[in-house]
Design a protein that fits this description.
Length: about 325
């Protein structure tokens, strides 16, 4: 029997089709979300505790949503257009209610760069006025920093600012639910807010609470304001906290991993600064080892100490 060699296009299809399928599967898996129910009708998407990466689609933070009889409220739109779209796909597995509102809890990229998708489907986007100012100041730089990390996963992502802004408090009443969006004094970023469900005593803390991973104090952060905001969280006495980073927790764990750590930084740096210690000595004499079990400890501990010392110089 005569054997006929396959043509070149057939050979190439045999080589490239499995590769293309693998790449598509990898890309799809990078933006899949699984909702965790924190309370009746309240869900969280728990993000990676590591750095932003192609594999986690830049979603190294928690987001979530609240389902009501009249629609859905999304808490944070994610790191990109595609991430927001994938979040919506996951929400549809829980409910077919439309997305009515999206709340941006702060100006960090994974809190709001997915706004464009939700805007397209008709949701109203809400944030504090200080968060909007922070987005306007840092948004283009955030987008530029994500491009070499997310590559094509950033396709379709553009700067879309919230159109509904408030100063201190915004109350949403939807489907018999009251959802309070509260700005205290910011902290991790200048415009950080919390989303409070008083009937259920459930709190979306945004970046005012970190657990499981070391929090980051950046040049745009303010540890004094952060602690003031945390004190207001304590007054609410939440039963359940969906933190900005880490697993769903209670107030005790939030205090341990966030408040106590910030107090350690501030107390040490205040004493060092008042005693005339220079920056390097202040860092060298700070013992942060009680938090060494937290993810990103080695990466962030030095910068946290340095930035809090610089805060003391400015206070």
């Amino acid at each position: 029997m005569k054997y006929t060699l396959p043509n070149m296009s057939s050979i190439l299809s045999l080589i490239y089709f499995p590769l293309a399928f693998l790449l598509l599967a990898t890309h799809a898996s990078a933006v899949q979300f699984s909702a965790v129910e924190a309370a009746p009708g309240v869900y969280a998407f728990i993000g990676d505790t590591g750095n932003r990466s192609y594999e986690n689609s830049g979603m190294n933070a928690n987001t979530g949503f609240v389902v009501t009889k009249a629609g859905v409220v999304v808490v944070d739109s994610g790191s990109s257009y595609l991430a927001a779209k994938a979040m919506h796909a996951a929400i549809k597995k829980i409910t077919q209610q439309p997305i009515k509102y999206v709340i941006n809890t702060g100006g960090q990229d994974h809190r709001w760069l997915g706004n464009g998708y939700f805007k397209e489907i008709g949701a109203q986007i809400i944030a504090s006025r200080k968060a909007l100012a922070d987005m306007e100041e840092r948004g283009e730089a955030e987008l530029a920093a994500l491009k070499p990390v997310l590559l094509e996963e950033l396709d379709g992502t553009r700067i879309v600012y919230p159109e509904r802004v408030f100063e201190q408090k915004e109350i949403l009443k939807l489907g018999g639910n009251e959802i309070q969006v509260l700005f205290f004094k910011g902290g991790h970023t200048p415009g950080d807010v919390v989303v409070w469900l008083p009937k259920l005593r459930v709190l979306f803390s945004g970046d005012l609470v970190f657990v499981d991973r070391l929090l980051g104090v950046w040049p745009f952060s303010n540890s004094k304001n952060w602690l003031s905001s945390f004190e207001q969280i304590e007054k609410l006495q939440p039963r359940v906290i969906i933190p900005g980073h880490g697993k769903i927790c209670d107030l005790a764990l939030a205090r341990r991993d966030t408040k106590d750590y910030l107090n350690l930084l501030r107390e040490h740096m205040r004493k060092s600064y008042d005693a005339g210690s220079d920056l390097q000595n202040a860092i060298d004499t700070l013992d942060q080892s009680a938090y060494s079990q937290l993810a990103n400890y080695e990466l962030l501990k030095g910068g946290n100490a340095s930035n809090v010392y610089l805060e003391m110089e400015a206070e």
